[in-house]
Amino acid sequence: MATSRNWLFVTLHTEDGRIGVGEGSGWPRVVRAAVEDLRCLLVGEDAGQIERITQRIRVATMGHGQTGVVASGALAAIDTALWDLKAQSLGVPIFELLGGLTRDAVHYYTHASSPETALEAVSRGVRGIKVGGIKDVVERAYAIRAAVGDDVDLMVDLHGPPWLSAADAIAIGRALEPLNLLFLEEPVAPDDLAGWRRVRDKVALPLAGGERFGTLADMLPFMTEGLLDVVQPDTGRFGGLTQMRKLAGMAEAHGIQVAPHSGSLGPVAEFAAVHLLASIPNALALERLEPDWSQREEVLTSRLQSSGGRIEIPRSPGLGTGVNTEFVQRYPSQQNVAIATGAFNPGTEQETPYLQPRRPRAGITRTGLE
Ligand SMILES: [Mg+2]
Hints:
By secondary structure, the protein is an alpha/beta fold. The chain has 12 helices and 12 strands.
């Protein structure tokens, strides 16, 4: 895989020969070490006692401090594999254990950076397009809206970088208000709660966020203070289906919809997200990179089917897929750092964040940026 994206898959094996599979994100190379450490809590245990095992894992990681998405990534991989095993043992798809179906298929949306790429996605039936970054984002969003028309949902993700001030996020948000966005995502960094409150107060757009969080407690103030309209747990680093279904319940109580994050995730986590979205009442849509790495689906023993912007719900027992181990082993992890993508203004990602100008204006704030 590329150095900025790594996929980590975990398999759990039972004495009677079943294999459960899960995926962990949240810095996968570190999560891999965490999973290996947690192995001793799993060997010899009853795989059917999912909640008990996940609580033991949470307690076992307490001594490391607030481990965030690393511990929650390890937990996600293990927990998803446990749900897969349990559903297999009962001969039903996972969504049946989550309460059954609330819909016949799951909507997804994808990304576009230009009117051309947006139109290409729409031509494949996609009904939701997300524009990312800050550089020229207002202009790009208007151009894409003009190209795709009003019948396609449009979203903007500012990615909440640490150097983006609430003042600038408010200015961008207000400029986007006429576009009738489905949501504005991460207008400021998720740990800038004060900034988020200011954006909420000043921008008349639905707000989305949560992809960088790992626990229910992380999400709590955003819900109780009414700071979110759409919550976006990352299926690989939010503790697995056990935690995600609880989050969905919390979101339901606060009138919030669920749209799992999938920016860097692999195809196993996508299966888990589809089971969740298929069963909860407040599902919005799944994020999906499309097109992704050309051999993405080779990872799996069976694939999700989609058309018209909707993903079919897998009906075979368990998660509904497995990992092609021989194929995965051909692509060992090399490194795991993100390189600037061009979505931000030059200079804003490369040097000391808090000394960077937020948005280039003129004179001083342009120095060294051109
Ligand atoms: Mg995002």
